[in-house]
Write a structure and sequence with these properties.
Elements (H helix, E strand, L loop, with lengths): L3 H18 L5 H9 L2 H6 L2 H17 L11 H18 L3
Helix pairs in contact: 1-2, 1-5, 2-4, 4-5
Length: 94
């Protein structure tokens, strides 16, 4: 069903974030998947796409550093992505 697709994409992204947090996935895989979730983006207000892309840009930049940098804390970015997912879920029907 068409209504299930945004929720399914949200769940995939949520699962992948857990894998990223646990070190079982990498930033590039998470980012590529997140950027390809068009049904999810279409189901959310435009500002969600803007915020997600900003977070992904910063996460990708953080992957260039071997240590935590004060301006690119990977842990903080992952927490921000989790918050984004939580808020996005509240916007989706079902």
């Amino acid at each position: 069903m068409m209504l299930d697709q945004p929720l399914s994409q949200w769940q995939s992204l949520s699962d992948l974030l857990v894998s990223l947090r646990q070190g079982r996935s990498d930033v590039s895989a998470f980012s590529a998947t997140a950027r390809s979730q068009q049904a999810l983006m279409d189901a959310l207000p435009q500002r969600y796409t803007t915020v997600l892309h900003d977070l992904l840009d910063r996460l990708e930049s953080s992957a260039l550093f071997s240590e935590e940098s004060c301006s690119f804390s990977r842990k903080d970015l992952i927490e921000s992505l989790q918050m984004w997912l939580d808020k996005a879920r509240q916007q989706l029907p079902g």
